Amino acid sequence: MIQLDVTLYPQEIDPAGKRDPQAISTADYQKLIRDALDDLFPDVTDRRERRELMALLSPGATDLLRAKVMADPSLIGQRVIIDVPFSDDLDQLAKGRIDAESETATRRVTDKQIEWFQRLEQRGLVRQAFNTTLFTAGDSRSPELAGIWGSLVGTFWTMLITMAIAFPLAIGAAIYLEEFAPKNRWTAMIEVNINNLAAVPSIVFGLLGLAVFLNFFGLPRSAPLVGGLVLALMTLPIIIIASRAALKAVPPSIREAALGVGASQVQTVFHHVVPLAMPGMLTGAILGMAHALGETAPLLMIGMVAFIVDIPGGPLDPATVMPVQIYLWADAPERAFVERSSAAIVILLGFLILMNLIAVMLRKRFERKW
Amino acid sequence: MIRKSLALAVLATVVTTAAAEARDQIRIVGSSTVFPFTTRVAEEFGRTTSFKTPVIESTGTGGGFKLFCDGVGIDTADITNASRAIKKSEVETCAKNGVTEITEIKIGYDGIVLANSKAAPRLSVTLEQLFLALAKDVPDGKGGFIPNPHKMWSEIDPSLPAKKIEVLGPPPTSGTRDAFNELAMEGGCNKIPAMAELKKTDEKKHKAICQGVREDGVFVEAGENDVLIIRKLEANKDAYGIFGYSFLDQNRDKIQSSLINGVEDDYDNISSGKYPISRSLFIYVKKAHVGVIPGMKEFIAEYTADKAWVPDGYLAAKGLIALPDAERAKWREQAMTLANNVGM
Description:
Chain A is mostly helical and 370 residues long. Chain A is built from 17 helices and three strands. Chain B folds into two domains: 25-109 and 281-337, Periplasmic binding protein-like II (D-Maltodextrin-Binding Protein, domain 2), CATH 3.40.190.10; 111-278, D-Maltodextrin-Binding Protein, domain 2 (3-Layer(aba) Sandwich), CATH 3.40.190.
């Protein structure tokens, strides 16, 4: 971060003086930033050098200034101090990942830029700040402007759809198969199929999603709705198997006792067996969701592995999810993305641990020993 | 049963609402090599105009054309990125699906580099030597072919280091590998007189020999992730890696590129075509969507604007090698008039 002293000349931003939001938003903030930099380094006049000087700052600097002015038009005409992020190369220099002593040709910052940076440091204008952008912004090509919020929201929508579809369907299927279905060749085949589906590689579900949801139903590409449907199909067998195991674990004595006092089959199952099996079923569901949370392969096929800047506003907007975001960042040539992907991995791991923790707590809390 | 029909009903409503909703966002698919550049333009475009930021998928060049040529309409892609020119067969597929007017825009060059760790000395090879090091079968000098016997660089030529040949590169699914096979392997192969002879008599066999990469563990397929290859090069100073120029550009403090045919793979040499392993990058625009999807014209204008694709524009900062001035002017002209420049 660099502290920049910007003068908001009214003639530059709002020559008409009407404080019209449209006019304010289209003003040349780039020029204001450049003027501020020129004030700091009046000795830089050469065209090429001025370009190098501008390259110190992140391309997002102008937007920061615009947002600030838009939020408070009364600032026009005053001098404001704003914190502007450095560009990713300078960021790496500040963190010592680029060696200032190394040969000029081997590093991405020029000698001049290092000298300017040191001058800024001496004047106390450089400070390190916690990277809040990482949590509030969508994806960006510039590491210093990239954030995970977009993918986090995308994950939320996707998981919501997955849960809304997979959970009731899986629990219903498990109860039916375990308690009501007649044992014949037909149900045996369904059972074998469910067990097989749980072992199918996840990319196959992506292909299915592409063929069925996109090509046949014509749903939009990259939408969390489709992602959620695909992941729901993927987690269904996992939840069904876990739920059936939970139902099986309820001792027959409970069933017999209920039937003995005159409860019907349906009453026995829904009043006695299901409540006792619920913790096990929930654990299965949460583990299934955690599995879906970490998936990228099936989403590749339905277009969710994409560069999306705008924050998705609903399940039909294009979106990406956290593991995909990590995959994309890990693939990017810019060095500073290594840190971004590490941070995103830590956040994703945090979520996974949290979900597993909830599963463990549910089991500990409600588990009954017979 | 009730649950099922309910789910179906929900799905049906969603389908109809989705189809009725017009798209206000450009959709781009295609090459992962062009991806960093197009995303940069898209971001700038989204930031400086009132249009939404385009959505860009990284599907690979071939996958991109497949989606692009799927037809005309809001559920198909508007633009595709490509790290090679469109093939005749792809143009035909496009035409069959009603995509008859396509504008091709060449955006710049990409060099494919052979690099190793800075801790080791720099390598200087010719394409011919590179072919002899990596080919699956090499000519035995008597008109026949033998499996590649070379284990050490020095066995090929005494001027090369006496070290084990070990090269990390992209898998066959990658466009970078295609380009490497075509430009480096075949280029080196044709330098051998016997092979040039074979091209005239048996083209199929010529191609198989020239583009066959050895599978005995000397050439290691390191996956699509170039960052990973660079990490491995750092750890193993005897290994060499094959990847795109932009990754070299970002990591020059850790790795150095080898001289190919004595030419350094710097910016000027790739731009002028002196460096032998360089390829052109393209974007293809579906003309039928211009005017239907908002912002198409403006996006193309942004891509070919002077602040973007010139030698000191923001794309060059991301590692794009700009076209020479005259060529740039020509492509800009075609882009702005949306010339229908892909031959049927």
